[in-house]
Amino acid sequence: MVLDARNHDPAQEAAAEQVLLARFDTYYLDIIHWFFQTTLPDSTPSKILDVGCGTGHLLEACDRSLNTTIAPSFYGIDLSQYLIENARKRFPIYQFEAGDATRMPYPDETFDLVYVAAVLAHVPSAIDILKEMVRVTKVGGKIAVLDQDFETAVLYPGDKQLTRSVLNAAADYWSDGWMGRKLPSILKSLGLTDITVDARVRVDRHFDKPFFERIRNWVVESGFPSDQADQWFVELCQQASVDEFLFTRNWYAVAGIK
Ligand SMILES: C[S@@+](CC[C@H](N)C(=O)[O-])C[C@H]1O[C@@H](n2cnc3c(N)ncnc32)[C@H](O)[C@@H]1O
C-alpha cells in the first residue's frame, strides 16, 4: 500500500487513503499540532511546501498553526496521483502536484518552509528527498521533519523474548526503523544549522487487532519464522483481552535552517 511506499498498485490507493484519513480521527491530529507548535514558533513563512502530502490535511493544520497577517501560499507534492486528485478536491485553495519528491518540479530556493511528515522512514530514497528539500528551500528558510522511530516500540502483554524479536523484525521491515533517532544527524550532514529536536510518545491503550495482524504479516514477509509470528499474534490476541494493553512509540520533530 502507498503507506509504506513499496507498492504503488493504484487498486490499493483507496484503502491506503482510508488508513491515512482514519488516523486523523485518532492520535495523528494531536501529533501534527505538536509538530507545528514545536517547529514553527514565531515563523512567518510566505511560501510553504508539504513533501509527501498524502491527503493534504497537514497543509490545513499548518495553515491554522501559523500566526501571520500575510496569507501564505501552500503547496503539496505526493507520488500518488490518486491522493493528489482527492487532495485538490478537498482543499482547492492549496496547490498540489503529483510527482516524485526526489525530483521536484520547483526552482532552487522557492520556499521559506519545507516539511515532510511520516514519509522518510517508509522510503528507500529518504536522503535524496531531503537533499531536494534543501535545494528548494530559500537560504535562511526552514526544513522540518516529523517521523517515528519504530524500534522505540513498547508492547504489553506478551512473552518478553518473543515480543522483542517480533518488534525488532517489524522495525527492520520499515525502510529505516531508526529514522527518528537519526534525523538530527542527517539534517546536520546536509548543512542545516540551528537544529532543534523534540520528541513525543504516542500512547495506545486500545488493542487494534488488524494493525497487529499487519505486523505479523510484515515480519513473516521479511523471513521471520511464521510459527513464531503466529504464536506471538495468537497469544497477544488472547492476553490483550485479559491484561491491560499498552503500545507506545516515540515520534521526533526535528528542524533546521538552510
Ligand atoms: C504514510 S503517508 C504520509 C502522508 C502525509 N504526510 C501524512 O502525514 O498524513 C506517506 C506518503 O508519502 C508518499 N510518498 C512516498 N514516496 C514518495 C516520493 N518519493 N515522492 C513523493 N511522495 C512520496 C506516499 O505516496 C504517501 O502519500
What does this structure look like?
It is built from nine helices and seven strands, in the order H-H-E-H-E-H-E-E-H-E-H-H-E-H-H-E. The chain is an alpha/beta fold and 258 residues long. The protein has one domain: Vaccinia Virus protein VP39 (Rossmann fold), CATH 3.40.50.150. Strands 3-2-1-4-5-7-6 form a seven-stranded mixed sheet, with helices on both faces. The longest helix has 15 residues, at 226-240. The chain is globular and about 55 Å long. Bound molecules: S-adenosylmethionine (SAM). S-adenosylmethionine is lined by residues 2-3, 5, 20, 52-54, 58, 77-80, 83, 100-102, 117-119, 122-123, 125.
What is the secondary structure topology, with strand pairs?
Layout: H1 13-24, H2 28-39, E1 47-51, H3 57-65, E2 73-78, H4 81-90, E3 95-98, E4 111-117, H5 126-136, E5 137-156, H6 160-173, H7 179-189, E6 193-204, H8 209-221, H9 226-240, E7 246-257
Parallel strand pairs: 1-2, 1-4, 2-3, 4-5
Antiparallel strand pairs: 5-7, 6-7
Helix pairs in contact: 2-3, 6-8, 8-9
Bound molecules: S-adenosylmethionine (SAM).
S-adenosylmethionine binds next to strand 2.
Brief overview, please?
The chain has 258 residues and is of the alpha/beta class. The chain has helices at residues 13-24, 28-39, 57-65, 81-90, 126-136, 160-173, 179-189, 209-221, 226-240, and strands spanning 47-51, 73-78, 95-98, 111-117, 137-156, 193-204, 246-257. Helix 2 crosses helix 3 (57-65).
Residue share in helix: 40-55%
Which CATH class?
Answer: Alpha Beta
> CATH H level: which superfamily?
Vaccinia Virus protein VP39
Average the pLDDT over all residues and give the rounded result.
Answer: 94
Shape: globular
Count of extended strands: 7
CATH topology: Rossmann fold
The molecules bound to the chains, other than polymers, are: S-adenosylmethionine
Largest sheet: 7 strands, mixed
